[in-house]
Design brief:
By secondary structure, this protein is α+β, with helices and mostly antiparallel strands. It has 2 domains: 81 residues, no CATH class; 70 residues, no CATH class. It has 6 helices and 4 strands; from the N terminus they run βαβββααααα. It has a 4-stranded mixed β-sheet with strand order 1-3-4-2, covered by helices on one side. α1 crosses α2. It is globular. The two termini are 26 Å apart. Bound molecules: zinc ion (ZN). Zinc ion (ZN) binds next to β1, α2 and α6. The site of zinc ion has 7 residues, from β1, α2 and α6.
């Protein structure tokens, strides 16, 4: 399961959520022109919609079973919606064009070649989610996921300044 966590430490109260209409409008505007669109579901919370999601998961978006999800209880602004959309779209794109073996090989290749990606991916792999991925699917797969999370973070608007030598500058 691929998902993005919001910066909110707790779920927003309902009056702080962006409205479903605002979220749906952003989706239309950002991905309307794409030829291949994943199904996108806008829901109030990850709880009950995503296996394993709890009150402390703080998940703002996910790619699960071939669909993309946006969760309003972690989306307090239009910018939050955009950021989550870009993040999840990158996961969707990579999963769409690569087989699982290709995906792992390509991600590990990037891991070996770029010190800033390696650092971010190592951090992700050491996180609670990363550790769980390693115990379920093995450490190579977990590291590949860490690289994927790095790339998805870089795909978010204004994220590039976070890493030097962002790979997206070079491809
Ligand atoms: Zn992600």
């Amino acid at each position: 399961m691929l998902y993005s966590r919001s910066d909110n430490s707790v779920a927003l109260s309902v009056d702080e959520w962006v409205t479903e209409a605002v979220a749906a409008g952003e989706v239309d505007q950002r991905i309307g022109p794409f030829a291949h669109q994943p199904p996108i579901w806008i829901r109030g919370s990850a709880i009950g919609n995503l296996p394993g999601a709890t009150a402390t998961s703080n998940i703002s978006g996910a790619v699960h079973d071939g669909a993309m999800y946006l969760f309003l209880d972690q989306l307090g602004s239009r910018a939050d919606v955009q950021r989550t959309l870009f993040h999840e779209l990158l996961h969707c794109g990579l999963r769409h064009i690569l087989s699982l073996d290709q995906f792992v090989a390509q991600m590990l290749n990037l891991y070996e070649r770029d010190a800033s990606i390696k650092a971010f991916a190592d951090e992700w792999a050491a996180s609670e989610v990363g550790q769980r991925a390693a115990s379920l699917h093995g450490s190579e797969c977990a590291l590949a996921r860490g690289v994927d999370e790095t790339l998805a973070s870089l795909a978010e608007p204004n994220a590039r300044k976070c890493l030097k030598n962002a790979p997206l500058d070079r491809v």
